[in-house]
Design brief:
mainly alpha; two-stranded antiparallel ribbon; 63% helix
Length: 289
C-alpha cells in the first residue's frame, strides 16, 4: 500500500472499501430497472422519484418540478423537459399543485416489475453485505419470491431499495459533474477491475486494492453489462481517460488505478454512509439486517 493510502484510509470508516466493492454492482444492476421503465434514463429517474414518494407516503399531494429538481440534483429545465415526456406517455399527470403518478401507473405491471426486480437486487446485496460481516441478513421462508405478489415486508424492502438507488444515482451524478452516464461508466470500469476479488474472501480487505490486483475491462464488455450502446460507453470512457480518472492498458482495456480512489476518499466515505443509512432504514422498519 502506498504511503498516501496509509495516511488517508484511517480517516474513513474501516469497512468503507469492502462495502463499496459489494454494493456498487447494485447500482449498476439498477440501470436495467431504469431501462425497463423508459427509453430515457432521466425520464425513468423522474418517474421513479415520483413513484417512490407516493409509495412512501400514500395520499401525499403532487410534487412541484422545483422539488423534483432538488430531489434529483438536476437542473430545473432538464427535469421539466423530461416531465413533459412522462405526461405525454401517461406515466405522470400534471395538476395545479404539481406532478403525480396516476393510480393506473402506480398499479401497472411496469411498476410491479420495477419493485419486484429491485427486491431481488436488494436481497442479493444484503447477502453480500452479510458475507463481509457488515450485515446479518437471513432469507426467511417468507422472503423468496413464491408468487407474483410481494409480501408486505418484501414490498417495504423493495421501496427502501429504490430509495437507495435514487440517493446513489444523485451522488454519482454529483461526482461526475452532473453527468450520470459518465459516473456509471466510471463505476462500471472500477467494479469490473476488481470483480474477480469481490466474490472471494479478499472482498473484505479493508484497504484500497493495489493495481496488481486490478484487471482491465473493455468498453464493449462494459456496454454489455450496462445494457447501453457501445458508442455511449466509449465516449464517456474517452472523457474519463482525458480527465485522468482511468488509464488504458494496451489493447486489454481500461483500469481505474488505486491512486484515483485515493484522490476521492470523501466520495467513498459518503457512499459508505449512504449504505449504512439504508441498513438503518430497514432495521427501523423491523427487517433483521
Amino acid at each position: 500500500m502506498s504511503q498516501l493510502a496509509t495516511q488517508i484510509e484511517p480517516l474513513i470508516p474501516r469497512d468503507t472499501y469492502p462495502v463499496l466493492r459489494v454494493t456498487v454492482e447494485y447500482f449498476l444492476r439498477g440501470v436495467e430497472v431504469l431501462s425497463q421503465l423508459h427509453d430515457d434514463v432521466v425520464a425513468s429517474l423522474v418517474f421513479m422519484t415520483l413513484w417512490h414518494g407516493q409509495m412512501q407516503t400514500p395520499g401525499r399531494g403532487p410534487v412541484g418540478i422545483r422539488e423534483l429538481s432538488r430531489k434529483l440534483g438536476m437542473p430545473y429545465e432538464t427535469v421539466r423537459r423530461h416531465v413533459r415526456t412522462l405526461v405525454q406517455g401517461g406515466l405522470s399527470i400534471e395538476g395545479k399543485g404539481g406532478l403525480a403518478v396516476p393510480p393506473a401507473a402506480m398499479r401497472s405491471p411496469l411498476a410491479a416489475a420495477m419493485l419486484r426486480r429491485t427486491y431481488v437486487n436488494v436481497v442479493r446485496v444484503l447477502r453480500d453485505l452479510t458475507r463481509i460481516g457488515v450485515a446479518r441478513f437471513s432469507l426467511r421462508a417468507d422472503r423468496p419470491l413464491r408468487s407474483r405478489r410481494l409480501t408486505k415486508e418484501q414490498t417495504m424492502i423493495g421501496i427502501a431499495g429504490i430509495g437507495l438507488l435514487l440517493t446513489g444515482y444523485r451522488e454519482l451524478r454529483k461526482f461526475a459533474g452532473g453527468d450520470l452516464m459518465k459516473g456509471l461508466v466510471f463505476t462500471a470500469i472500477w467494479t469490473a477491475n476488481v470483480k474477480h476479488v469481490t466474490n472471494t474472501p479478499a472482498a473484505g480487505d479493508r484497504a484500497i486494492l493495489p493495481d496488481s490486483q486490478r484487471l482491465p475491462v473493455s468498453a464493449l464488455a462494459m456496454a454489455r453489462s450496462l445494457r447501453l450502446p457501445y458508442e455511449t460507453v466509449r465516449r464517456h470512457a474517452d472523457a474519463l481517460l482525458k480527465e485522468g480518472k482511468c488509464v488504458r492498458v494496451g489493447r486489454k482495456g481500461l483500469v481505474v488505478m488505486s491512486s484515483t480512489h485515493q484522490r476521492h476518499v470523501p466520495t467513498s466515505a459518503a457512499a459508505y454512509h449512504i449504505v449504512m443509512a439504508f441498513l438503518a432504514e430497514l432495521r427501523s422498519a423491523g427487517v433483521k439486517v
